[in-house]
Specification:
By secondary structure, the chain is mainly alpha-helical. It is about 45% helix and about 10% strand. Keywords: Cell membrane, Cell wall biogenesis/degradation, Lyase, Membrane, Transmembrane, Transmembrane helix.
């Protein structure tokens, strides 16, 4: 009788232990949590497991310091932690976090997104780098060159307006084009399209600060208008010395009700890279076509750098009404349509 009770009790204890072990394994070692974001962590020489666990817990990367420390002790990895800066993805298993922090090697990489690149070029670059698929980037940044009011199937950009006040004035029927600040970034090895977009928006917020936004508004321009014009300047003008001059020409043409007639707006629409556009392209019915419709295009046609944005905010007064970029990339100016026609004949051969 006693022997039977003992055997039954032993079996129940074993089953309970196995159940706890499976739950522990599922919850902490294998199955990722629901929240997922990159958490920065710096491990200095001499930092102990308790300090690392405390930092991870404080930053929300793990739920239990005790379980983390216990796993490190059980796995015998307490002496293997590497020093340096890491980006730990919260929500993943403790086993993966420990493996990342105890494996030698880099935890970040560098990417360069060029000034003037649009969402299309950025998405293709990130795909080539093996970072994100084009569609994944579009799901966050939005489908480029698209009016969402007329295209219900296009990917709409994620709404970041609660995080970034400068997006409040952006129409909801265009992508995040123009606000993805081009720069060189150091990013975690494990990163999502949303992570990258958020980093670029943070950079925009820092570089185009409140003072610059107020300066634009004091000149009677909205931030959206400034960024849209700056994106044209970025595509049309190579030299910084010409940007403010071209800015003044474009603003005056807009104020006078003249069409901008810039090839870059049509190339953005078609995705072509040609220095001049065809007559058929000029007839494309799109609010991005500045030959067919007066005013600014529907939205920015790329992501301008700081120089072009400053030029859009601070135009340099001049007497020209026309400009063109020759095949050599040099800007030629004209005061009259006749002068502009002469420049076209001479420099667009």
């Amino acid at each position: 009788m006693k022997r039977g009770i003992f055997a039954t009790t032993l079996i129940l204890i074993i089953l309970a232990a196995l159940s706890f072990d499976f739950g522990f394994y599922e919850t902490y070692l294998r199955r990722p949590g629901s929240k997922s974001e990159n958490v920065p962590l710096t491990v200095e020489p001499g930092t102990g497991v308790k300090a690392i666990a405390a930092e991870l817990k404080n930053k929300g990367a793990i739920r239990s310091r005790f379980i983390f420390e216990t796993y490190v002790w059980i796995s015998g990895t307490q002496a293997r932690f590497q020093t340096g800066k890491f980006y730990v993805r919260s929500g993943q298993s403790y086993a993966k976090i420990v493996k990342q922090l105890t494996s030698p090697g880099v935890s970040e990489r560098e990417i360069t997104l060029l000034e003037g690149w649009g969402i299309r070029e950025m998405a293709e670059y990130l795909k080539r780098q093996g970072i994100a698929e084009v569609e994944d980037f579009y799901r966050i940044a939005g489908t480029p060159a698209t009016d969402y009011r007329n295209d219900r199937d296009a990917f709409r950009s994620k709404d970041f307006s609660q995080e970034f006040a400068f997006l409040a004035g952006r129409p909801d029927y265009v992508s995040l084009e123009g606000y993805l600040f081009p720069d060189t970034y150091r990013i975690p090895l494990e990163v999502t399209a949303e992570d990258i977009v958020r980093v670029m928006l943070k950079n925009f917020d820092r570089r185009i600060n409140q003072e610059l936004r107020a300066e634009a508004e004091s000149r009677g321009r909205t931030l959206f208008e400034v960024i849209t014009l700056a994106s044209i300047i970025e595509r049309e003008v190579r030299a910084d010395a010409d940007r403010a001059l071209v800015s003044d020409i474009l603003w005056r043409r807009l104020d006078a009700g003249m069409p901008l007639q810039v090839d870059s707006s049509v190339n953005y629409l078609t995705g072509k890279k040609t220095p001049s556009i065809s007559f058929d392209d000029r007839e494309i019915d799109s609010p991005y076509n500045t030959y067919k419709y007066p005013g600014l295009p529907l939205g920015p046609i790329g992501n301008p750098g700081l120089s072009s944005i400053l030029a859009a905010i601070r135009p340099k007064t001049n007497n020209y009404w026309y400009f063109l970029a020759g095949t050599d990339g040099v800007i030629r100016y004209g005061r009259t349509l006749e002068e502009h026609a002469e420049n076209r004949a001479l420099y667009l051969r």
